[in-house]
Amino acid sequence: MAFVEILFWVAVAVVVYTYVGYGIILWMMVKVKEWFIKPVALPHPTDEELPEMTLFITAYNEEQVVDEKMANCLDLDYPREKLHIVWCTDGSNDHTVERLGCWPQATVLHTPERKGKSAAMNRGLQYVHTPLVAFTDANTMLNRASLRLIAQAFLDQKVGCVAGEKRIQTEEKADAAQGGEGLYWRYESALKALDSRLYSAAGAAGELFAIRRELFQPLEEDTLLDDFVLSLRIVEQGYRIAYLKEAYAMESGSANLAEEEKRKVRIAAGGLQSIARLWPLFNPLRYGIFSFQYVSHRVLRWSITPVLLFALLPLNVVLLFGTERTALYVILWLLQALFYLAGSLGYYLSMRRTKNKLLFVPCYFLFMNLNVLRGMVYLSTRNDKEKGTWEKAQRA
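Request: output the structure for the sequence above.
Response:
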């Protein structure tokens, strides 16, 4: 019984640290650092000083958003003669390529074979020779100043990658998929900003990020989280990832929890795959404080923390009948039961598209962690035909 009790409290400590403790410690470390080392503002480059940049968009059957995306690209505040717009549309069999044909400002790289996003990036980047490459999704819209701000961040020669902020547009009557995803990304954005201020953000999101072209390393074609692996391999080369909340990409939340599940399972599976492929980052002797950031912010969430989270309830039940401190474990069991009840109620309301942000938090939290377990199963059972591809989640 002593072993069960120790395991229970270790699980509590890991779960609390992962989702609350790390954020608090990170905030304190940033405050201490900036007390001694004041942040230095980078100069604003003029149009003449801005480097050439490629806006690289990988797309699969995105005919419905081509016109809106191109209009958004051409409205960006960046010298037109220095901005190259490239679409890589491998495997698209709708009217995406035809729609792009109406936009002579875009270079279209198309092949009928669909091998997945990572393969498309490897192929497309062979034709890109600008010093900076910004990646974005077809269904996300960038704020007008985003590329100019990204170019400014690269004036720091230690920066090899710049991560923009992902923002979720939610409907007035958002369900748990949209409302929960929006709250989650606001929390994630705050952590990423603190990570960047301490040393480096722990990865970039594919909705908007940029790299120095010279640092690109071809990805394994079965890579599930291309943005994450690509950005962290730049950290492996000795550079840091700067996070810019002022450069952001807007996209709609998932249509419902079933659609959001597709994303979360892929992300979780990709996270586990990434942990294996980015193993050098565990070495603090080489990567210093970043190893701490990487493990705390990413590795725990995609590995042991979800397992320990769902183990807490059965461990608590065992302790209800096996220790003398029954009152303490009764209280902890009741708190857990209330949390699961709130999550279930949030799910029920989500199915009825009833707005209740308070209940969306436990619902989305449990949903997110459950899909990490599903991701583990998916990664171990997927077949060779789907190794580089996945089914897109429908947006609201």
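The two ends are 49 Å apart (CA to CA).
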